[in-house]
Design a protein that fits this description.
Structural class: mainly alpha
Shape: elongated
Radius of gyration: 26 Å
Strand content: under 5%
Number of strands: 0
Helix content: over 70%
Length: 114
């Protein structure tokens, strides 16, 4: 394996990590901003905040915003699980060997019969 292959592999991993981190950050910031907007409307308009929100953002926008919040709330753990599975696969540990799983094979004693 040449040094160029190693550099190319490292660059690919760095790009992958950067895309995952940026996507995760974008989703978290979107969830935070939408929740803060809704909290501001609750504080400003009181019990009639939904009508004020829909007047400002358009009809049906609150339902759409809540759908986006649900999608984001589901996407965050899914991204974490996928990254964890990819990391486990890339780590290259031999998880199927008895020593890796904590099980030890017992050595069978072979009895000699004469």
């Amino acid at each position: 394996m040449s040094i160029f292959t190693v550099i190319r592999a490292l660059r690919s991993m760095i790009y992958f990590i950067a895309v995952v981190v940026m996507g995760f950050t974008f989703i978290c910031l979107h969830i935070y901003s939408e929740l803060s907007i809704q909290a501001a409307y609750r504080h400003q308009f009181g019990p009639d905040w939904k009508r004020g929100y829909e007047q400002h953002f358009g009809p049906g926008s609150l339902a759409e915003a809540n759908e986006n919040l649900i999608i984001g709330a589901v996407a965050v753990p899914v991204i974490l699980v996928i990254v964890w599975l990819i990391f486990r696969e890339i780590s290259g540990k031999n998880r199927h060997s008895p020593e890796a799983s904590g099980r030890r094979r017992r050595k069978r004693r072979r009895e000699l019969s004469f």
